[in-house]
Specification:
The complex is a heterodimer of chains A (484) and B (95). Chain A has 484 residues and is an alpha/beta fold. Chain A is 37% helix and 12% strand. Chain A has a single domain, classed as Amidase signature (AS) enzymes. The chains are: A alpha/beta (484), B mainly alpha (95).
């Protein structure tokens, strides 16, 4: 098995001295330049990257961190001190973060080399990577197609071989859907597992940061570094962090896997259905047992989410007022004009659409019928998952209804775009962890399947995904021209 | 679900987003189709189900009542659109 381009592969070569941190960083910078047409990055400070990598090379072997010298790209939603942090928005086009996010502090302390900030749907609102002020990101497998979103640049950067891993965020599928579209493995951890401190808020009860890479083994390395309690995020959970790398090799035999047939009643392309079925058979061969699980309310997840997430967004994005930071219109006539025009100019059309939707569902006369009803549906969905995890260890489902779609195909139909999230949204509503991994190809494009687990069940998800990747080669597929 | 231009203008004003007439017209259709999709959720029976605001049952943590933040006003104001003498500037509110 070739694992040259994985995080683990580079860690081994850095450890043996076959390559230096600076040489690896320079190689990544060259690949970012070669792949500029994919529009994966918003900001790259090459000199600083090379300086940091050279500093890493000077660290004595005994003092090296678990991610020593490893190049990692960061979704531009994470604050990085004194670095431009845009969230893909004109609103923050010139804004430099005054401090670093918790996950950035953790990665730097572990010795990683942060390569740059990746493109994304504005404020993480999108499922295609097309809603960025800095232009759409393209899919390295087929540059006429979307890479998925909202962590579009992170997915494209890894798939194109620019970096071996990246951080994304996932509010309704924004790590898992682009991972599936780009042939990667991506993990949305349990809500509260990774601190949201320094992550620009979209929908605070749903947002969670997580890693994207080629393999479950690489995700385990990264999650071990970024997981853990941080008192600066009041929803960060003080639960012990498992040894995820150690958990990878646990036996799969005897594990119980749930199949939610009701969820598969949604519109699913035939190749996706086949991929899920083949994954089921692989797990059976590995000794797992398969059980039917009922998630009767999960299909109401999309409408519930598109009430709750816009409602939270409309509140969170009220902070962008043209006064304290971000874009301000020129020559405001009065304070109201300053607000109206700064926000009209600073936000793109999808962000405005969500703020308007959120404001509507929170307004007098609609709050009960929309917002509270969505929260009740949310409880039903969560409780159905909790009941299912009394019967099974994990649930196997598609990640997306189909493979990556064409650029421009869904931009004029917001509801068709939202429907892309049908399989990913339930995990965010329930706060449970979910992992997407490559599970086949159709027409030259990768397909993903998803494993969903109980709260704080990340070790089990990574264990099963790793076993799957030991038994199959789907995660070894690469776009043409990208090193294996 | 039927929305009219007046409703869109009212919501946009509540959200402090300036819209021109063309944009307002476009959002009428968008909001109608989004709220039409949301109707599916309203049909889910939820009698006796308590709203779930948050996926994990958390207790608010308490911490010692001590100052943990240093004064970083100059740093925070370095990227503000308009400041003077440590204050954020806005158009005159009181004549």
């Amino acid at each position: 098995m070739s694992a040259d381009s994985t995080l683990a592969g580079w860690a081994a070569r850095l450890g043996s001295g076959e390559i230096s941190c600076r040489e690896l960083a320079a190689d990544c910078l060259a690949r970012i330049e070669q792949g500029a047409h994919l529009n994966a990055f918003v900001s790259v400070d090459s000199q600083r990257v090379l300086d940091v990598a050279a500093e890493r090379d000077a660290i004595p072997r005994a003092e090296r961190g678990p991610l020593h010298g490893l190049p990692i790209a960061i979704k531009d939603i994470f604050c990085q001190a004194h670095t431009r942090t845009t969230a893909g928005s004109r609103m923050l086009e010139q804004w430099r973060a005054p401090y670093s996010a918790h996950v950035i502090e953790r990665l730097e302390a572990a010795g990683a080399v942060l390569l740059g900030k990746t493109n994304m749907d504005e404020f993480a609102m999108g499922s295609s990577g097309e809603n960025s002020h800095f232009g759409a990101t393209r899919n390295p497998w087929d540059d006429s197609r979307v890479p998925g979103g909202s962590s579009s640049g992170s997915a494209a950067a890894v798939a194109a071989g620019m970096v071996p891993a990246a951080l994304g965020t996932d509010t309704g599928g924004s790590i898992r859907q682009p991972a599936a579209f780009c042939g990667l493995t991506g993990l949305k951890p349990t809500y509260g597992r990774v601190s949201r401190w320094g992550m620009i808020a979209f929908a605070s009860s749903l947002d969670q940061a997580g890693p994207m890479a080629w393999t479950a083994e690489d995700l385990a390395m990264l999650l071990g570094v970024i997981a853990g309690c941080d008192t600066r995020d009041s929803t960060s959970v003080d639960a012990p962090v498992d040894d995820y790398s150690k958990a990878l090799s646990a036996p799969v035999s005897g594990r119980r896997i749930g199949i939610p047939s009701a969820l598969l009643g949604a519109d699913v392309a035939e190749p996706v259905r086949v991929a899920v079925d083949e994954a089921r058979q692989t797990f059976e061969r590995l000794g797992a047992s398969i059980h039917e699980v009922a998630l009767p309310t999960a299909l109401a997840g999309v409408p519930a989410y598109y009430v709750l997430a816009p409602a939270e967004a409309s509140t969170n994005l009220a902070r962008f007022d043209g006064v304290r930071f971000g874009h301000r219109c020129s020559e405001p006539r009065n304070l109201t004009d300053l607000y109206l025009r700064s926000r009209a100019e600073g936000f793109g059309s999808e962000v405005k659409r969500r703020i308007l939707t959120g404001t509507y569902v929170l307004s007098v006369g609609y709050y009960e019928a929309y917002y509270l009803q969505a929260q009740r549906v949310r409880r039903l969905i969560r409780d159905e998952f909790l009941a299912a995890f009394g019967q099974v260890d994990v649930i196997l489902a598609p990640t997306t209804p189909g493979p990556a779609f064409a650029l421009g195909e869904k931009v004029d139909d917001p509801v068709a775009m939202y429907q892309q999230d049908v399989f990913t949204i339930p995990a965010n509503l329930a706060g449970i962890p979910a992992l997407s991994m490559p599970a086949g190809m159709t027409g030259g494009l990768p397909l993903g399947v998803q494993l969903l687990g109980p709260h704080f069940g990340e070790a089990t998800l990574l264990n099963l995904a790793h076993a799957f990747q030991q038994a199959t080669d789907h995660h070894l597929e690469r776009p043409s021209g990208v090193r294996e | 679900m039927s929305i009219d231009a007046e409703q869109v203008r009212r919501i946009a004003h509540l959200a402090r987003i300036g819209l021109d007439a063309d944009e307002a017209d476009r959002y009428i259709g968008d909001l109608e189709s989004i709220l039409g999709m949301v109707e599916r959720m309203r049909a889910v029976p939820t009698d006796g189900v308590a709203p779930l605001p948050h996926p994990i049952d958390l207790q608010q943590r308490l911490r010692p009542d001590v100052v943990t933040e240093a004064d970083q006003r100059d740093l925070f104001q370095a990227d503000a659109p308009a400041v003077a003498e440590g204050f954020y500037l806005v158009p005159r509110v009181v004549e």
